[in-house]
Each structure stands twice: as C-alpha cells, then as structure tokens.
Specification:
Rossmann fold, two-stranded parallel sheet, 15 helices
C-alpha cells in the first residue's frame, strides 16, 4: 500500500448491515472477500449485500474472492461467483431467464423431495454433473480464477494426518433395531437417501452421535490428560452439549462454539484457547468454517460426527492447520461399526475426487 491509502477490515456480519455505506466508502477501490465460500447462497442476505445488485462490490473497481473451497457441497456453490465474475459467460452457457435454475440443470442433479408436514415437494440438489466442463470454464476459458495447490501454499507447513477408528456405541434397544433395518439396505441406497436428506436417516445419525458421547468423552479425556488441548468437532448441537457436560463433569475447562453463540463469545473463546486457558473447544463443524484462528492453542482434532463434504471438513481442520501452526496436526475421526457411517465415508471419498477439480486439497492419511 502507498502512504495515504485507506484500509478497512470488517466481518461479513458488519458488511451486510452497512452495505450502502461501505459501497460508497470503497469509491472505486479494491474489495477483498476472504473465505468467500460464505457467499455461496444467492438468496442469502449476506450474499446479496456484497455481490448482488447495488451490493458492496458495485463500489469496487476490482473484487477479489479468496477461498480454499469454492465448492463445499454441490457445483451450484459457484453460481454467485460466476454471476459477478463472468456474467456474459453465464448467459452464453446457460441462457437468460432464470439463470440459477438453468445453471443447476446443467451442472447439478436435482430431485423433488416431499418433507413431512410440507404441503408441496421441494426441489433440491443431490449431485453434480459436467464438473470437468465447469472447471474448464472457471480456470481456462474465462480465466476469472486462479488455483494454487496446497503443495505450493503450504510448503513450510507441518504435516496434517488423519485417522479413522471404531469406537463402541452406547446403544439402547431402539437404536439397535434402527441400525438393523439400515443394514438390510445397500450402501448405494443409503448414500442416495442421505443426500436426499431422508428424515428417518437423519434421525438415526443424530441418535448415533448421542450414542458416541460416552466413548468419545473418554478419548478426548485421554488426549487432555496427556497434555494436549483438543478441538472437538460434531454436527448436532445435542451431541455438542452432551460432550461438553461429560467433559466438564470430569473437571476439564472448555467452551462450545456453534451457531447459538455470539461473535463476541466466539472471539473470547478463541483468545482463551490460544492463550492456553482451555482444555478443549467443542465446535459445530458447520459454524467453524471461517474467521477462527486456533492454531496457537493446539494441534489435536477429534471428529465425533463428520460431514460428508470433504471441503467442509477441510475448512474445520484449517482452524488449526493454518499459517502460524508450529506442530504436526493430527485428526482422529471416531466412527461406529454400522452401515450408515460407512455410507457417509463413501460419499466423502466420492466428493473428494470431484472437489479436487476446484478446491485446494492435500493431506496425509494414516
């Protein structure tokens, strides 16, 4: 920067609330959006405030969107970015009219799903298609994006290793019967139903998470007793609360970070963790993808419930495995011996091969 240049750093939450003021303040300057996969939903107020019509980006001469995971789940995550970066190319490839719907028809698999209590079925994305063509458009034809592999970005980073191992589930008779019924299905059928958000399977996943708490708490306690601070990842708030209670009952000091906590609370928890004042943080994976730098406070991660999107998991790991980390970061994913969790793992591996066409990837597995 030159002397006299202005620099303003704000969160997405503030940017959304003060969009008009920030657009005028930019006055033809440069807008940089870090962790820009947070702007993947074109209907979200945050995305509209920054990338939409009369959004903050309209006040910038240049807009740079930075992310290691441009696609977290499905190819339509790219839609807002491409509308801003290459609108002529969008019109050329998908046509005018309802471009979002046309984009989804071309680059994703869509199905209608009837949810309990809903009057009408909901059309939703359940898969990807034409990913090679989309990558060609983004990185070669339009040249609106530059991809840098982790091998180059993290040359001097310590290694990240991952491990999966089975733990016993504290099951009641009802859960045993549920899993017995699931075991009669093929893995392909289970994968499809998971991706279609089948309510019955969603309930079983939550029950499995709760059944892991006892064994998971013992694993976490073992790491803490050996002198490690542990970042714990789970999906359901009920599982997070139960883990927090189990660990506090053992006398450990920790914090919960999830969608129920305020930004100030999260910042305070981050400071406590990095200062060495916490034994653990129990985090909701979906709520920890951005804006938390925890690399100074620990290097051990335990995943109790995993997301099937490898990009979302990578973002969670990046809370510790990022610039400033001095130690080898290790991830232990705790799984139960059942067909449902096996299907989740298979979905993750399949998506990992698809996401390599877009996302910054790379890790060692043990």
């Amino acid at each position: 920067m030159r002397e006299g240049d202005k620099l303003l750093v704000v969160s997405y939450a503030i940017a959304q609330k003060r969009a008009d003021e920030l657009r005028e303040w930019l006055d033809g300057g440069i807008l940089i959006c870090d962790e820009s996969h947070a702007l993947k939903n074109p209907k979200a107020k945050r995305t509209k405030a920054i990338l939409g019509k009369d959004g903050i980006a309209d006040g910038a001469a240049y807009t740079w969107l930075l992310t290691g995971t441009p696609i977290t789940r499905w190819n339509d995550d790219m839609f807002p970015f491409l509308c801003r970066a290459d609108l002529p190319g969008m019109r050329e490839r998908v046509g005018r009219g309802d471009m979002m719907k046309r984009f989804q028809m071309k680059y994703t698999v869509r199905q209608k799903r009837q949810f309990p209590g809903a009057r009408f079925p909901t059309e939703m994305t359940v898969g990807n298609r034409n990913t090679d063509e989309l990558a060609q458009w983004v990185y070669k034809d339009s040249k609106v994006a530059i991809r840098v592999d982790l091998d180059e970005v993290y040359k001097n980073m310590p290694p990240l290793t991952t491990n999966r191992y089975t733990i016993p589930l504290d099951m009641d008779a009802e859960l045993r019967e549920m899993l017995k019924e699931v075991s009669k299905k093929s893995l392909a059928d289970i994968q499809q139903q998971l991706q279609q958000k089948e309510p019955a399977l969603a309930t079983i996943r939550r029950r499995i998470g709760m059944a892991k708490v006892k064994a998971a708490a013992a694993e976490i306690a073992e790491r803490i007793d050996s002198g490690q601070n542990v970042l714990v990842g789970a999906w359901h708030t009920g599982v997070i609360d139960a883990l927090d209670t189990a660990l506090k009952d053992r006398g450990y000091e920790g914090r919960i970070i999830d969608g129920r906590r305020s930004a100030d609370y999260k910042n305070n928890a981050q400071d406590e963790w990095n200062a060495g004042g916490l034994d653990y943080i129990a985090g909701q994976i979906a709520a920890m993808g951005v804006s938390l730098n925890l690399q100074q406070g620990g290097s051990q991660i335990i995943v109790v419930e995993e997301d099937w999107s490898p990009s979302i998991m990578d973002q969670f790991y990046a809370r510790l495995w990022r610039y400033g980390q001095k130690k080898h970061v290790h991830v232990d994913t705790l799984v139960g011996d059942n067909k449902l969790e096996e299907a989740v793992g298979r979905i993750s591996r399949t998506k990992a091969s698809q996401h390599e066409k877009f996302n910054v990837v790379g890790r060692e597995t043990s």
